[in-house]
């Protein structure tokens, strides 16, 4: 009996010793192997050169977050009566940075990632885009230095941006011409819009050099309606029905070209109407009603198109819902424009919705669509799941709240300041959160071990 107990104790001791040895040896192996794994996933500047979207999106994220922080600082300075003395009016600087700084950089990352696939060409090396992108980033850095120092420095900075963007537009145009595919409808339209962007940015540099405020406002309106919005419209027409048909059963990729033609014609009309408002205000009542007669049907068409492309069905798929949520703002922006111009026609241009339609277009359609598209590219081409996770989904809804607050600030004048500050806070959280998270991704290898 005692002998059996002794043998049992020895057996238990042997088992315990074996388990402990294996446990501690595993711990040693894990500690030894964790160092190279951690080192492998450290952020490195060279990783930005692994793919065009990494390099361009990272620079766009820098401009996105910097612009958001700058404008938040300007708004706080107004609240606390801090005296800032910019060489260019802050609303004009705001329009410049929030429209032409980060958007073209995001365009670059998207077009030189998706473009070769659309055109069936070889992929573009990120390093080949570096000179143009560095020229643009240098220009914006000079603008931040010059905006409180010397107006000519701001003009020179925007001139550098125009130079860099013209090189990228030329590169994309050559890609379109070199392609053998038969369907170049969307890529050709994007190329045309990119060259309009060159003219817009160069015009902004000229206006700054001449201190011509009216000319600067003119190029801003053209930049929104003839450059940025058309690029988003073309990409929306190509990608939203495609994604919807792939992810939603019994839904076809319905995207007739006449729909895109109507979208672009409406945007061009809005650009002309904005110039008429700028140069010949107040407009005759008949012209106001003409605006309403164009904008109201266009708004209904865009909202109906969102339903046709699967808006309701998309709510079950986060990333698809994000794309549709951005597109809905196009219809809402046109609807707000129609209401605003109807009020102006009825009141002799004394009552309107102010900047509500413009922010619905820029923050709503352009901002939310940009957020969804670059999130999809960053995830899909970064070796991660394409569906939006909880972090991306939460940031997207913070962005949507920012749009609603800013539109509300323009409509409800007594609450303009607190609503604007709240909108800026939400915008900053969404954009800084996105920039920090995905900026880290761009500088680290893909988790699936693949290249790109």
Kindly summarize this structure in a few lines.
With 452 residues, the protein is mainly alpha-helical. Helix content is 80%, strand content 0%.
Question: Would you mind describing this structure in some detail?
Answer:
The termini are far apart. The protein has one domain (48-442): Cytochrome C Oxidase, Chain A. The chain has helices at 2-40, 52-79, 90-100, 102-119, 126-146, 151-178, 185-210, 213-247, 257-280, 285-308, 311-314, 318-347, 356-380, 390-411, 416-442. With 452 residues, the protein is mainly α.
Helix content: over 70%
CATH architecture: Up-down Bundle
Proportion of strand residues: under 5%
The fold-level CATH name is Cytochrome C Oxidase, Chain A
Order of helices and strands: HHHHHHHHHHHHHHH
| Domain unit count | 1
CATH class: Mainly Alpha
> What structural class do the secondary elements suggest?
mainly alpha
- Unreliable spans are 1-9, 11-39
Give the CATH H-level superfamily. Answer: Cytochrome c oxidase-like, subunit I domain
Question: What's the helix count?
Answer: 15
